[in-house]
Design brief:
This protein has about 290 residues and is α+β, with helices and mostly antiparallel strands. It has nine helices and nine strands. The chain binds adenosine-5'-triphosphate. It catalyses: L-threonyl-[protein] + ATP = O-phospho-L-threonyl-[protein] + ADP + H(+); L-seryl-[protein] + ATP = O-phospho-L-seryl-[protein] + ADP + H(+).
């Protein structure tokens, strides 16, 4: 099979990027001509993507603006083709995608209309990085995607294993794919834990490092931790809040409770309150940081 065939390979197209626009002293007619060409290329891309087998399977759920974001990611060389869905959620779908040099990446595509934007807005509250975002649903969701990207960067910098963030374009996040050729990495509840005591220590250290870097995951449990090639990886950091958030303490307590309860069921001597005390007493959260 040709590399990428199973992904519904998108052919390369020549586009005009932002820099080229700035360099061109375009007359109206020339600008029109370029705009028409871009429109044509875009609609061809859309048609090609819609015709791929995988896309038919997923039901063709992307709207025009999402197609445009995917098209930009193709033009910018981050992805070449969209593959099969890994997960279909209420707020976002995660797909495999083919990147240059036969690499597989994961893309998370947020649905602007279906997202629970009120809840998202509550999580953005108190975060100095998103102070001016109140407005409409679209702005909140787009800020959310950037926030997930920024949180991944910050977590990575803090020494927490997360999927490597690669790019963000409108409502689409491109990140490292976790898993192998046969399947995406399983979540903790589905994985063979090996030694649960060691796994618990690793997760405890991750929560502490996150807190030390001024972040609280906010939805941590066995469902947002995956095991990739024997390594524990924290995922879904979109809702992670900074320690400035009015509910950060409550979120941290809940994260600790979820994680400790899971490991206690696995036979580990773990307790939510003890875990919380460990995290806050060992950590020294950095205040007032800008985006990572
Ligand atoms: N980088 C990745 N590589 C491989 N699989 C991934 C990756 N990121 C997410 N997944 C898979 O997709 C699922 C959903 O991802 P994630 O939790 O980030 O999205 P979500 O829409 O917030 O999901 P949910 O609503 O279930 O919390 C994960 O449980 C995991 O199985």
């Amino acid at each position: 099979m040709v590399a990428g065939e199973e992904f519904g390979l998108v052919e390369e197209t020549e586009g005009v990027d932002g820099d080229e626009w700035e360099q061109l002293d375009v007359s109206d007619t020339e600008a029109d001509r370029i705009a028409r060409r871009q429109d044509r290329e875009f609609s061809e891309f859309r048609k090609r993507l819609k015709n791929t087998e995988q896309f038919k399977v997923t039901g063709g759920v992307f709207d025009d603006a999402t197609f445009a974001a995917l098209y930009k990611l193709v033009q910018d060389g981050y992805i070449e083709a969209i593959g099969g869905p890994i997960s279909t959620g209420k707020e976002a779908d995660v797909f495999e995608a083919l990147a240059p040099e036969d690499e597989t990446v994961a893309i998370k595509v947020y649905r602007i209309n279906a997202s629970d934007f009120r809840q998202m807005r509550d999580y953005l509250e108190g975060d100095p990085r998103f102070e001016n975002i109140r407005g409409d649903k679209k702005r909140v969701v787009l800020a959310w995607v950037k926030k997930e990207y920024g949180n991944l960067l910050r977590a990575k910098k803090a020494g927490v294993r997360v999927p490597d963030p690669i790019a963000v374009q409108r409502n689409v996040l491109v990140m490292e794919y976790l898993g192998d050729e046969t399947r995406a990495a399983p979540t903790l509840d589905d994985a063979d834990l090996g030694n649960p005591e060691t796994a618990y220590e690793v997760v405890r250290e991750y929560i502490r490092r996150l807190y030390d870097a001024g972040l609280v995951h906010g939805d941590l449990s066995e469902y947002n931790l995956v095991v990739d090639d024997g390594e524990l990886v924290v995922i879904d950091v979109g809702q992670a809040v900074t320690v400035h958030h009015p509910n950060s303490e409550e979120f941290l307590r809940r994260d600790c409770r979820n994680v400790a309860n899971f490991f206690a069921r696995e036979g580990v001597d773990a307790d939510g309150d003890d875990l919380y005390d460990y995290v806050v007493s060992e950590a020294d959260p950095r205040e007032g940081e800008g985006v990572a």
